Amino acid sequence: MTKPATQTPNSAPTTDDPFLWLEDRTAKQSLDWVHRQNEITVGELQGDPFYQASFQTALDLMTAEDNIAVGAAKAGHVYNFWQDKTNVLGLWRRTTVASYKTEKPDWETIIDFDQLAAEEGIKWVFGGASRLYPDFNLCLVSMSPDGGDASEMREFDIATKSFVEGGFRAPASKSGFSWLDKDTVIVSAAFDEADKTESGYPRIIKLWKRDTKLEDATPIFEAQKEDLAVGAAVEYDGDRRYLVLARTLNFFASHIFLRLPSGENKQLPLPDDMTDTAIFRDQLVFGVRSAWTAPDGTVCKPDGLYSLDLARWVETGAIGPVETLFEPAYRVSIAGIARTRDRLVVSLMDNGRGKG
Asked: For residues 287 and 270, is the Cβ–Cβ distance under 8 A?
């Protein structure tokens, strides 16, 4: 394989690492260097005699009309994003749960991204949508203009199948957007360097009110520059709504907070490496990556699942008894948890095989 060329700008500092200047990942010379290395790599790959046949096989598999239409169920509908040889940029669509169970579901197109590209002259790449609970008709749609990490956000109404005129809209960035309520959007901001961590991810959480400017959104939570990122999510437990804020220190450690009605951000009294968290029936359900002894003496172990009285903690600050929901078992690990209205679903891997 051709050896990548080493090129260091004249402005690079004296160092034993000849590539330290690449730390400035958005600098023109850094990007130019990456493009040159990509050209070398692509040339090597395309020069392989099996390349074209392998590429065509992969493309045929990705665009086959008999692929399984994997969907997400919301309020009586199953939502799916579909791409094939005709719909290159894809269709965001839905069908009823009853129709989805049939051999040939009757799909209703929500957004045709090939049509949108033809209308606007931009090949938008769908990046997902945050839907407003409980009817899920209003959406915050993320679309990348070039397939990169930066996405534009626009408010969309599924009932009218149109973008909301004068609705929420934000320029392309690595920011995140989700609903607090129909007139308030939670913004994980990464618009400029002040908003970002050193890793380039959102550092500040803001609340953006309808009919106001994005730059006037109110900051409610911040991480340190050296942290990895911040995040926010809304959890519903019956009629209760919780705004959960996360200060991610690294890929394996986070500080999790609840935003209380008083405006206080109250940190959950759990270890930094907690995992598999959910709020269900007034209980905070959680797991841990390393063993942790709760104040009541309960030993929480990796691949176990535990809970504590969340309402009691919010009111008194005391954790109270910790209940063991799932005891770790040999060769069994927790793959994830999910909630329905009245059930907590635990996905397990048993000796490499999934089960629930």
From this structure: no
Mean pLDDT of the chain: 91
- Which of the residues in the chain have pLDDT under 50? 1-13
- Which residues neighbour 53 within 8 Å (Cβ) at sequence distance 6 or greater? none
Q: What pLDDT score was predicted for residue 90?
A: 96
Query: Is the pTM here over 0.85, yes or no?
Result: no
Q: Which residues pair with 135 in a beta bridge?
A: none
| C-alpha dist (Å) from residue 59 to 52, 63, 84, 85 | 10, 6, 9, 9
Residue 10: per-residue pLDDT: 47
3-state secondary structure of 300: strand
Please give the radius of gyration of the chain, using alpha carbons only, rounded to the nearest integer: 24
Return the axis-axis angle of helices 28-46 and 51-62, rounded to nearest 10°: 100
Q: How far apart are CA 227 and CA 229, in angstroms?
A: 6
Contact (Cβ atoms closer than 8 angstroms) between residue 227 and residue 248: yes
pLDDT of residue 341: 82
Alpha-helical (H) ranges within the chain are 28-46, 51-62, 97-100, 113-120, 310-316
Residue 276: closest CA among 309, 311, 312, 301? 301
| Contacts by 196-202, CB closer than 8 A, 24 or more apart | 197/223, 197/224, 197/225, 197/226, 197/227, 197/228, 197/229, 198/225, 198/226, 199/228, 199/229, 200/25, 200/174, 201/174, 201/228, 201/229, 201/230, 202/174, 202/175, 202/176, 202/229, 202/230, 202/231
Rounded to 5 degrees, φ, ψ at 38 are -60, -40
Share in percent of the chain as helix, strand, coil (round to 5): 15, 40, 40
In this prediction, residue 98 carries a pLDDT of 96
Handedness of CA 41, 47, 50, 51 (dihedral sign): positive
Say how far apart CA 72 and CA 313 lie, in whole Å.
33
Q: Phi/psi of residue 283, each to 5°?
A: -110, 145
Q: Check if the beta carbon of residue 124 is closer than 8 Å to that of residue 145.
A: yes
pLDDT of residue 276: 84
